[in-house]
Amino acid sequence: MPPWRINMSLPNIALVATGGTIAGQAASAGEAVKYQPGALDVGVLLAAVPGVDALANLQAEQIFAIDSAHITVAHWLQLAKRVEALLADDTVDGVLVLHGTDTMEETAFFLQSVLSSDKPVVLTGAMRPATALSADGPMNMLHAVSVAANPASRGKGVLVVFGDAILSARGLQKRDAVPAAFDADRYGRLGMVAGADVFYYQQPARARGGLMPTGDVLPAVNLLYAYADMPASLVLAAAEGAKGLVLAGLGNGNLRPDWLAAVSELIARGVKVVRASRVPNGTVVHNRTYEDDALGLLSGDNHTPPQARVLLMLGIAAGLDNKGLQGLFDQR
Ligand SMILES: NC(=O)CC[C@H](N)C(=O)O
After folding, report:
1. Residue 144 burial by CB count (10 A; 0-12/13-18/19+): exposed, middle or buried?
2. Could you read off the pLDDT of 161-183 as tens digits, one per residue?
3. Which residue positions in the chain have pLDDT lower than 70?
4. Which tens digit of pLDDT belongs to each residue from 188-210?
5. Do 85 and 31 fall into the same domain?
6. Phi and psi for 15 in degrees, rounded to 5?
7. CB 100 less than 6 A from any atom of ligand 1
8. Where's the Asparaginase/glutaminase C-terminal domain (predicted)?
């Protein structure tokens, strides 16, 4: 890493830009819907955040310039390995990732699951493109730098800073299409940020880290959202070519008997199947409504279905058996 141009009294924060609306460019300042995500370089974005250099010494790099709706597992692996390398550098005190909001909940949880450092890792983005009136990106960036630079952010897992709130990666969901897209009424609001001031009120309780894969691919795991009168054939179709399937079931991960029969067929073929819930705050209780262990089924606790998918991919890649996989869902 090149030497920092440093103010010795400030922490060193590495900024990794991936694209998203925060780097979006529209044809006019009044246009906040039709724009090109990831169009602007991180240097341009930083220039729109006056005062940020009083919070931290920043070193920025552009790892991707994509719409996060287009992100792939290969991007996740590349990003995670880059962030891991930055965190291992003694001169780096924290990492900030700029990311599109569409899949921020998955990338944040992926990073949380694989990275083991206690140093702060923060993600932020924006709902309005950088060229919009009242763009939310610059303030989100200023706040995210404050949080990444604050020693109180150590050991809290991967954080998302959005709309003045500090949110845990665990359970994060994009909930809205307005600028407070991640307002967390779920499990994860840890604190608030106001300019340079950072206030924490909660501490995450679940284990994290340790699942960095050694290879450069992950086993395919698919996700199916259940609904009333869904044909059981979809359960089989959803698992085609996959090593795992997450079922966003009804209520407590409930499955109609013919869906359960299809699930048993998949399990007999060696596919790992997780019962999750499509209920936004839903929790799936293991071995209660269903004899999960006897059926060879896994249950997702209250992980969101996309986050359960991330965990299942990483757990299968780690070679875990059903007991080990269930341990992941129960402890994280
Ligand atoms: N607000 C956003 O960032 C969404 C825009 C874009 N689809 C992305 O996720 O990158």
Report:
1. buried
2. 999 999 999 989 999 998 889 86
3. 1-5, 183-185
4. 899 999 999 999 999 999 999 99
5. yes
6. -110, 125
7. yes
8. 221-329
Query: What single letter denotes the amino acid at residue 117?
Result: S
CA of 107 to the centre of ligand 1 (A): 13
The domain that holds 323 is classified in CATH as: 3.40.50.40
d(CA 96, CA 108): 11
At a CB cut-off of 8 Å and minimum separation 6, what does 33 contact?
A: none
Q: Which protein residue has the closest C-alpha to ligand 1 atom 8?
A: 100
Q: Rounded to the nearest 5 degrees, what angle is found at the Cα of 50, between the Cα atoms of 44 and 51?
A: 130
How close is the Cα of 319 to the center of ligand 1, in Å? 33
Ligand 1 mutation pick, 18, 34, 68, 127, max ligand atoms within 8 A of CB: 68
Whether residue 101 has its Cβ less than 6 Å from ligand 1: yes
Tokens of residue 277, six digits? 């819930």
Tokens linked to 74: 């290969």
Question: Ligand 1 center to residue 102 CA distance, Å?
Answer: 5
Query: Residue 52 is encoded by which pair of tokens?
Result: 């940020």
pLDDT at residue 171, rounded to an integer: 87
Active site residue 21: yes
* 5 within some domain: no
Give the residue whose CA is nearest to atom 3 of ligand 1. Answer: 100
Is 101 annotated as catalytic? yes
Q: Is the CB of 140 under 6 A from ligand 1?
A: no
16 forms beta bridges with 61, 97
Angle at 93 between CA 193 and CA 200, to 5 degrees: 25
**C-alpha neighbours within 13 Å on the C-beta side of residue 209:** 12
pLDDT in the model for residue 184: 63
172, 226: one domain: no
What is the number of the ligand 1 atom nearest to the C-alpha of 22?
Answer: 3
pTM: 0.96
Chain position carrying tokens 């610059």: 138
Distance 22 CA to ligand 1 centre (A): 8
Count CA atoms within 13 Å of residue 221 on its CB side: 24
